[in-house]
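Long-time lurker, first post. I've been practising inverse folding by hand and with some scripts of my own, and I keep getting stuck on stretches where the structure tokens seem ambiguous. Below is the full token string for one chain I'm working on. Before anyone asks, I'm not after the true native sequence, just a reasonable design that respects the backbone. If someone could post their per-position residues I'd love to compare against what I wrote down in my notebook.
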């Protein structure tokens, strides 16, 4: 008897997380683009279901741990966009290829990778080995709406919905 497939949302639920609704674009861009076998997710900020959260500068008004929570919220938004892009068919996600993380921080702050680890942890928790990715984590003097973190993503996808990669 085979073990039933475990979905990314179920993996996240086991950790106490729930995917938000995929947010609409806030300006003149689209939330995601599919090009060939790649899915590009526009930068996501830590708003969950329209609720503004994690506003401030990491290392100044926010701790590294609060920055990590902001990064987790961004990762959940990324996964919500990915789910929308593949019309709920998680089997089309081959892997998370890359995350790009921006941290709202002052010039002396040097813990950007620790902050973006929050998002990396969510990707691996949701997608298993397929969630391991390349990434960058850099500081920014400010981010939209004063949020602590903004993260974009690239996924490899397939059009063959018969391939199940999560078990």
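-- Answer (accepted) --
I ran through it position by position. Result:
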């Amino acid at each position: 008897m085979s073990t039933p497939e475990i979905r990314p949302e179920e993996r996240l639920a086991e950790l106490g997380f729930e995917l938000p609704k995929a947010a609409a674009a806030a300006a003149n861009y689209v939330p995601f683009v599919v090009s060939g076998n790649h899915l590009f997710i526009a930068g996501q900020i830590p708003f969950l279901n329209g609720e503004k959260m994690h506003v401030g500068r990491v290392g100044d008004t926010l701790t590294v741990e609060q920055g990590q929570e902001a990064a987790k919220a961004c990762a959940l938004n990324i996964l919500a966009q990915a789910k929308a892009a593949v019309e709920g068919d998680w089997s089309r996600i081959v892997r998370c290829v890359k995350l790009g993380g921006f941290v709202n921080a002052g010039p002396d702050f040097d813990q950007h990778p620790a902050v973006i680890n929050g998002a990396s942890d969510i990707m691996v928790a949701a997608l298993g080995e397929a969630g391991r990715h390349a990434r960058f984590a850099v500081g920014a003097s400010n981010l939209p709406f004063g949020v602590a973190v903004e993260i974009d993503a690239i996924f490899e996808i397939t059009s063959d919905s018969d391939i199940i990669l999560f078990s």
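A couple of notes from the structure itself: Residues 161-167 have pLDDT under 50 and may be disordered. The beta strands are 32-35, 38-44, 47-48, 51-52, 93-104, 134-140, 149-157. Happy to go over any region you disagree with.
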